[in-house]
Amino acid sequence: MAQTTNATSTAVAATADDSANKMFKRDALVTIEKQWQKDWEERHIFEVDMPEDDSVDPEELHEKYPKWLGTFPYPYMNGILHLGHAFSVSKIDFATGWERLKGKRALFPFGFHVTGMPIKAAADKIARELEMFGPDFVIPDEAEDLGDKVAEMSVDDSPAAGQNFRGKKTKATAKFGSHKHQFQVMQSQGMSNEQIAKFADAQYWLEYYPPIAIEDLKSMGCKIDWRRAFLTTDYNPYYDSFARWQFERLHEMGKI
Q: What residue numbers bound the domain in which 101 lies?
C-alpha cells in the first residue's frame, strides 16, 4: 500500500513538474514579448513623421525618403476583435515590417468603424430590454423555446438514404452566439448588469470597445502609429471634417 502511495505521489509530482516546465517556457516568451513591446513604445519606433528638408523639391524628397503606406479595413466596434481580425491584420503588419527593412518610411495607421446602424440598433435594444426586464435583466417565466436550444438545420432536397444534415451559421451567430437578447450577448462577454446598462447610450460603445482593440493589437506587436488612430464619426472631428468635405465637393460637382 505504501509503495502504491509513493508511486502515485511521484507520478503527481512528475506531472506538476512537466506542467511547470511548460508554463515556464510560455512565461519566458511572454516576458520577452512585454520587454520589447515596452522598448518599442518608449522609443516610438512605429511613429512616422514627414521629412523636413527644404533643400529639395517634392519629387527629389520622395526619392531621398522613400515612403510606404498600408492600412486595414476598419473593424466594426460592436464587439471585441477576434481571430479573423488577427489573421487578416497579420498580413498588413508583416508587409509594414518588410517595407521598413527595405529602408522605406512605412506608415501603418488604424481606424475603427463606428458609423451605420448596428451600434445604434444594439443600443436601442439594451434600452428596450432595460424597460422590459429592469436593471437586473430578469426575464419573466416563459415556455422553453427549443428554437434557441437547437441549431438551425438544413436538409438536402434529395430523398436519398443517408441524407446529410448541415448546420447553418450566420456571421452574427458566429460572432455573438445564439443569444435571444442583446443583454445576454453582453453577459457572455463577462459584463455586469450595471455595465451593460451603459450600452443603452450609443456613444458608450465608442468609448468602450476601441481601447480594448488597441490593447489587443499592441499585444500582437503590430507596427501601428497610434497617433493616427481614429473613429469614423464626429467623435473624431478631423476625420469627420474630411468626410464632410468629400460629400460637399461631390454635391458641388453635381455627382450626388
A: 35-139+171-252
Q: What residue has cell string 460572432?
A: 175
> Around Cβ 69, how many Cβ atoms within 10 Å?
13
3-state per-residue secondary structure call for 19-36: HHHHHHHHHHHHHHHHHH
Rounded Cα distance between 67 and 71, Å, is: 14
**pLDDT tens digits, one per residue of 71-110:** 999 999 999 999 999 999 999 999 999 999 999 999 999 9
User: String of b and e for 23-40 (b: at least 16 CB within 10 Å)?
Assistant: eeeeeeeeeeeeeeeeee
Mean pLDDT of all residues in 113-122: 91
Domain-embedded: residue 134 = yes
Any domain includes 70: yes
Contacts of 219 (CB under 8 A, 6+ apart): 37
> From CA 39, how far away is CA 178, in angstroms rounded?
42
What's the helix, strand, coil split of the chain in %, to 5?
Answer: 55, 5, 35
Q: Domain count of the chain?
A: 1
Interval 9-55: pLDDT, tens = 554 455 556 666 778 988 999 999 999 999 999 999 999 998 887 77
Q: What phi, psi does 240 have (nearest 5°)?
A: -60, -40
| 197-222 mean pLDDT | 95
> Considering the domain boundaries, does residue 15 fall inside one?
no
| CATH number of the domain encompassing residue 94 | 3.40.50.620
Question: Is residue 19 included in any domain, yes or no?
Answer: no
